[in-house]
From TrEMBL, chains A, C:
It comes from the Bacteria. It comes from Povalibacter uvarum. Belongs to the class-V pyridoxal-phosphate-dependent aminotransferase family. NifS/IscS subfamily. Keywords: 2Fe-2S, Iron, Iron-sulfur, Metal-binding, Pyridoxal phosphate, Transferase. This is cysteine desulfurase. Its cofactor is pyridoxal 5'-phosphate. Gene3D superfamilies: Aspartate Aminotransferase, domain 1 (3.90.1150.10), Type I PLP-dependent aspartate aminotransferase-like (Major domain) (3.40.640.10). Its EC number is 2.8.1.7. InterPro entries: Aminotrans_V_dom (IPR000192), Aminotrans_V_PyrdxlP_BS (IPR020578), Cysteine_dSase (IPR016454), PyrdxlP-dep_Trfase (IPR015424), PyrdxlP-dep_Trfase_major (IPR015421), PyrdxlP-dep_Trfase_small (IPR015422). PROSITE patterns: AA_TRANSFER_CLASS_5 (PS00595).
Automatic annotation (TrEMBL), chains B, D:
CDD domains: IscU_like. This is NifU-like protein involved in Fe-S cluster formation. Residues 4-114 form the NIF system FeS cluster assembly NifU N-terminal domain. InterPro entries: NIF_FeS_clus_asmbl_NifU_N. GO terms for biological process: iron-sulfur cluster assembly. It comes from Povalibacter uvarum. GO terms for molecular function: iron ion binding; iron-sulfur cluster binding. It comes from the Bacteria. Pfam families: NifU_N.
Length: 386, 124, 386, 124
């Protein structure tokens, strides 16, 4: 069998070759191999310069000042640092947090841990369109609410939340607002000032950068109180200790710069590719787009295939690398909690697939994917009921 | 996703006896499970004298379920009707290397076969 | 000025070109770019295989089973996960921890945070040779002691602790033992079974692997109770969530395999290079090796230059990239707490430099370093007192 | 480590008037600070009439200290003795772009210069 067609860009993207080149320069013997914290010599200072240049690139991608960017190991760490950090720092002001049922596990499981420690979390349920209404957030706020955590773009459905409205609301009420924007960069505009976001999680590997590096935007004026998770050398303004991985950070900076520069072009191209994919898939009949009516990013298409069992669907389509939900360790046996929160039954959620396109997707690949879907869905329905 | 044995893949990709035998006096049918449960089987068999002359299945379920139904029909065609009554999930599970967590689904298939046996062995 | 001579391998090493090649394969478009947690397709499974192969390589380097290796973002995270993880999990069994004054900041600052939360920490003071006697540990143990954290190789002096003796002691007393082995791999043998270590911190970038990836060995039988720091997708047996960075992990695996394979050769070569360096430095007179009498790794030489002010010494020797202490964000103005714990005065500590050699150090570089030291130390002493 | 201005580097690498003038009736000396403090200066000057004919320094301290002492001797040689009394740390700190956290060390240098001034301006 030839290599499958990669339509799982929302799980992770390949590194853009232009980004890889910049990283490889760092990894070569003549590269900037110093420790960016070794301020006493050339090697350290050269590495530090690269780190600071990348900090500007990432800051620019979200309309922030460079000193607000804290490097992390990815959005999982950013989410945990934001949520645990705020909760532990502000615990004596209040112990209530507002979030939603369709957040990424990195948010939900951090919140679960806080619940075990005595915090109280309200999980808002989005409508069938996947949208949490700002009004729901307003109603959930209490005098002891210290944090609202709401994602920007959902990783399974591609639904775009109106985080600007939520940010405004939180700012008015003096509640901190954290936004998981792991899926946003290069897909939708992000502006932490305009959106009044206090903490924003990012990761490189959803935007053609390397896995294992991310960042947390932390508003500086007035400062957001945050207790670190990792203590030590005191890097990153004391908020995140650990040796800075120059090549990884350089990769993230380069990736974000490209993502912003090529956003409009990428978005338009992917929207029409996705439309072509959907037209082809729709031909098999009895299929539905999840969260169809919501504003969604242009590269994600989450489809429920009625009358086809999920595991067989996925295996039948193994020539097309897609996924049934988030790429987590639990495997794909459990039905997606995101789709269930949108009102899908377990069966429907299990018979859903997320097709996610990206920068290197081609029309030919989409055509092949359509052909596979048409043949295999037809075949499985045939097996199921003659 | 669980990995599948080569035999599961073979039966999943090229199922034997997929379908439903047209209703006829010598055709018996039985089913078990439901789509809501995630697994359902429909079995039909043409009997002649003491023997199973033909058999077809419909299956809604995971690859192991489809493969197990296919393998089962393949092995039962040509057998005496009593083979239906003696059938249980163990040989198919072993042949196809079906993991323990799928046992519940194999029991649904067993229900369908047993039901077919009851009908087939009924005094006419 | 031509590029300085790099003698700061203890701060971070360049990536070995053989390791870089393996990483670069992963970063290229045809590389294993899938998410190792995407078990439903080829791309994910290929990445997973690479991750598991590296897990075996790292486990082999410390005499452990692969399932005991948890990937992290570096030794800072490993130290924090071990220390915070044990403390928070076992808090109801006891709240006393034993450690030493010469640990890395990642250990000390994690402990400081626990002290703020009501834990009680005994910091043992090593002798002038930098060694913490197992007897000191024994005396410090209390009925409510839950953890002993003692590093293997000190990053400033190179002193090797007798962690085997401490491990035995802890095992006898039913106290968990964490060991920071960030500086050990490829320099001294590490065997978690023989040394009876329960938790062992590692990092790739001190052993010619990439920065930003590390691992924590977590004993499995009987299991060490550990509360995670990062919650989310449930990767790494639920102990450390976050997308696994395939290229980084592949780099760490390859680096550790090489480090073990070439250990004896590297150690011998570096020992004689270091001896040559010391003979040259000693000629300037009034210099002392820190922790001279202790067993030390072969690549570190920490020297106090009497009669020379530290900052000027460092700047005068800028053609040689060395450092005065750990590469942390605080800058080099503060005197090393490690040397002070060994009985050095502030002045002496400040007038000390750590020369650390490595795989790519050459005799010519050592000769140049000696010439620089001789000229500049002589010159500064001349300026100081005619 | 703080970065150093080009002028600091120049004076650090090629200090002017490093050393100690041999004791003589027309040579005065003064010192301030200590090695234990991390900074110490020794200044010596040869006077002739109202003028400073020559000046040398010894300095134990950071690059800013060495450069400041060097710069100071360079600027004071040829000046009237009263210039010693008027000297303060500000011009040298400005010329060499010495960061604020090093002010304490500059005050030690100032002490040494003031002390020299007192001796130099003593009625003979
Ligand atoms: C919305 C969202 N948040 C958080 C994460 C976790 O980020 P990372 O993989 O960088 O740990 C992901 C993807 O994995 C995501 O899609
Ligand atoms: C002994 C020791 N522990 C921990 C660390 C921290 O490791 P990392 O740089 O991987 O965060 C280092 C080096 O920085 C070290 O030398």
């Amino acid at each position: 069998m030839s290599s499958p067609i990669y339509l799982d860009y929302a799980a992770t993207t390949p590194v853009d070759p232009r980004v890889a080149d910049r990283m490889i320069e760092c990894l070569r013997p003549e590269g900037a191999h110093g420790n960016p914290s070794s301020a006493s010599h050339e090697f350290g200072r050269r590495a530090r310069e690269l780190v600071e240049k990348a900090r500007v690139q990432v800051a620019n991608a979200i309309g922030a000042k460079p000193a607000t960017i804290v490097w992390t190991s990815g959005a999982t760490e950013s989410d945990n640092l934001a949520i645990q950090g705020v909760a532990r720092f502000h615990a004596d002001r209040g112990r209530h947090i507002v979030s939603s049922k369709t957040e990424h596990k990195a948010v939900l499981d951090a919140l679960k841990q806080l619940e075990r420690e005595g915090f109280d979390v309200t999980y808002l349920r989005p409508g069938v369109d996947g949208i949490v209404q700002p009004e729901q957030v307003r109603e959930a706020l209490r005098p002891d609410t210290i944090l609202v955590s709401l994602m920007h773009v959902n990783n399974e459905t591609g639904v775009i939340q109106d985080v600007g409205a939520v940010g405004r609301l939180c700012r008015e009420r003096g509640v901190l607002f954290h936004c998981d924007a792991a899926q946003s960069i290069g897909k939708v505009p992000v502006d932490v000032e305009a959106m009044q976001i206090d903490l924003l999680s990012m990761t490189a590997h959803k935007a053609y950068g390397p896995k294992g590096v991310g960042a947390l935007y932390v508003r500086r004026t007035p400062p957001v109180g945050l207790r670190p998770i990792l203590f030590g050398g005191g890097q990153e303004f004391g908020l995140r200790s650990g040796t800075l991985p120059t090549h990884q950070i350089v990769g993230m900076g380069a990736a974000f710069e490209l993502a912003i520069a090529e956003k409009d072009e990428d978005v338009d191209r992917l929207r029409s590719l996705r439309e072509r994919l959907w037209q082809g898939i729709a031909k098999v009949g009895d299929v539905e787009i999840n969260a169809e009516s919501a504003d969604r990013v242009s590269n994600i298409l989450n489809v429920t295939f009625h009358g086809v069992e999920g595991e067989s669907l996925q295996f039948a389509l193994r020539a097309v690398a897609v996924s049934a939900g988030a790429a987590c360790s639990s495997g794909s046996d459990e039905a997606s909690y995101v789709l269930r929160a949108l009102g899908r039954t377990d069966q429907q959620a299990q018979s859903s697939l997320r097709f996610s396109l990206g920068r290197f997707s081609t029309t030919a690949e989409v055509e092949t994917a359509i052909a596979e879907v048409q043949r295999e869905v037809g075949r499985l329905r045939q097996i199921a009921s003659g | 996703m669980a990995r599948y044995s080569p035999l599961v893949i073979d039966h999943f990709d090229r199922p034997r006896n997929s379908g439903r035998l047209p209703a006829a006096p010598d055709v018996i049918e039985a089913s078990a499970g439901s789509v809501a449960q995630g697994t359902s089987f429909h079995l039909s068999a043409r009997l002649s004298g003491e023997s199973i002359m033909a058999m077809q299945f419909e299956a809604y379920g995971c690859p192991h379920c489809i493969a197990a139904a296919s393998w089962t029909t393949e092995h039962l065609v040509g057998s005496p009707i009593e083979a239906l009554a003696r059938w249980d999930w163990r040989p198919v599970a072993q042949a196809l290397e079906i993991p323990a967590e799928k046992r519940g689904r194999m029991l649904i298939l067993q229900d369908a076969v047993k039901c077919l046996a009851e009908i087939g062995l009924q005094p006419p």
